[in-house]
Amino acid sequence: MFRVHPNERPQGNPAALSECDLLVIGGGINGAGIANDAAGRGLKVVLCEQHDLAAHTSSASSKLIHGGLRYLEYYEFRLVREALGEREVLLAKAPHIIWPLRFILPHRPHLRPRWMLRAGLFLYDHLGRRTTLPATRSLRLNGQSPLQANIHYAFEYSDCWVDDARLVVLNAMQARALGADIRLHSRCVSAHREAGFWQVQIASAEGRSEVRARAVVNATGPWAARATEEILGERPSQGMRLVQGSHIIVPRLYQGSQAYILQNEDQRIVFVLPYEGDYSLIGTTDLDYRGDPAAVRPTAEEEAYLLSVVNAHFRQPLSAEAIVHRFAGVRPLLDDEDGNPAAVTRDYTLTVQGGRGQAPLLNVFGGKLTTYRRLAEAALEKLRPWLPGMGPAWTGRHALPGGDFISQAALNAELQADYPWLDDRQRWRYVRSYGRLCQQFLEGADSQRDLGRDFGAGLTEREVQYLRQHEWASSVEDILWRRTKLGLRLSSEQQQDLAEYLGRLG
Questions:
Q1: pLDDT in tens, 148-201
Q2: In 3D, which of 326, 298, 278, 303 has the Cα closest to residue 489?
Q3: Helix (H), strand (E) counts: the chain
Q4: What are phi and psi of 89, to 5 degrees?
């Protein structure tokens, strides 16, 4: 049986596979999670992604690992229970990119009575396993908060923050260390069944290649239905509904590490989250979307909606001029024909198409960041009849790359002792982005000068080279918005300098 070494240092891609057990199409969280789980079970895996890892939906989330408090109102008890249990698992697996966050839920009597909020939070505390996160408590505000003076009561409960794009990258890195062939900027252009296999054509800048796969997973997110029909030649077994969710980023609205979950008159909720130290992240919206998922952009109406909800709750007024960045993503949800996009289920469905003697196609519909690991386990169990030699589930017991440390504080102290010349902000960023992986580009350095050129905000030449060589980063956007969030801090001139540097490297 293939032995799992989840924190093995990757040394580039393995030799490209022309025959594999499993071809995964899509490099978002579900595709990367399935590829990682499968590689650790001893399967030969190829993952192809037409753009970058987490280029779309998986990097456009609210950055939360959470049970989904509002899903209780829609009786999504199975999903909430599974997600609540996963919070603890993922905290242990990735303490560098996932950490606890306390949420303040203000009480507004005309929306939901206090007893209802208290009952919902009691259920939230006890529906899933909670061993490290503190329980809910009631708050009497007495005007001593950033909220409007007419908000007198609130509740405080626990969920978790996650760097969503890095969660995808770390899963892909672990899959590669376990033998998976990760192909980015590689588009699956056609596929057909032949002699018990899928024959798949993949196009990239280097030309076309063919992969022969025993099974195919369609994890293309909002492109899932289109890929099923146009590439794989099958009829989708599930209807999909594409829902746009938008976020805005503004200068920090308040002091403190807490987040806020705000109720609105339309029964939706809006999060206000501490973001990258100096900012607040506000979202999200629910808007039916039609069009190319890669072209989604926040609308002026969505931005006005988010601002209005915040202004109804906070003392500090917020205007559109305060927005420093905005982003949107398309969530691929199961079409349950509910007229309200916010009420459409966030649960996932896995379907397998292929009769006796045929190579299977597994389609992934729906899903959310928090449950990606359980989705991957369920997907592989569905494929076990065609891949009987695979090993057992393993991902719940092993850290993601860089996550083999006790706590962020302990790792920060260790790095401070080993590299006392590091700036505090820079060191904490390394802890919360890379964990122990940062030692790969810090090794042998005795001063800032040894890290090479600083492109701005502590982004050094060594870090950029590491991201290119080990994390598939090839563009300014890859580096500044998905591998790091330094796009918020680098000026347009600094970003241009980085682009010219990358261009010289080729």
A1: 999 999 999 999 999 999 999 999 999 999 999 999 999 999 999 999 999 999
A2: 278
A3: 13, 18
A4: -65, -50
What is the DSSP-derived secondary structure letter of residue 253? -
Cα–Cα distance, 450 to 297 (Å, whole number): 40
C-alpha separations of 135 from 99, 119, 138, 256, 328 in Å: 16, 13, 10, 19, 32
- Give the integer Cα–Cα distance in Å for 250 and 339: 31
* pLDDT tens digits for range 22-65: 999 999 999 999 999 999 999 999 999 999 999 999 999 999 99
The predicted model scores a pTM of 0.95
Please indicate whether the domains covering 19-57+166-235+346-397 and 408-505 agree at the CATH topology level.
no
Distance, in Å, from the CA atom of 141 to the CA atom of 106, rounded to the nearest integer, reads 9
Per-residue DSSP letters for 429-467? HHHHHTGGGGHHHHTT--SGGGG--B-STT-BHHHHHHH
CATH class (in words) of the domain with range 98-162+241-343: alpha beta
Class level of CATH domain 19-57+166-235+346-397: alpha beta
Encode pLDDT of 313-338 as tens digits: 999 999 999 999 999 999 998 776 66
Query: Contact, 183 vs 49, CB < 8 A?
Result: yes
Looking only at the bridges linking them, the beta strands covering 98-106 and 259-263 are parallel
Rounded distance between C-alpha atoms, residue 223 and residue 244, angstroms: 14
- CATH code: domain 408-505 is 1.10.8.870
Question: Domain map of the chain by residue range?
Answer: 19-57+166-235+346-397, 98-162+241-343, 408-505
CA–CA separation, 333 vs 407, rounded Å? 35
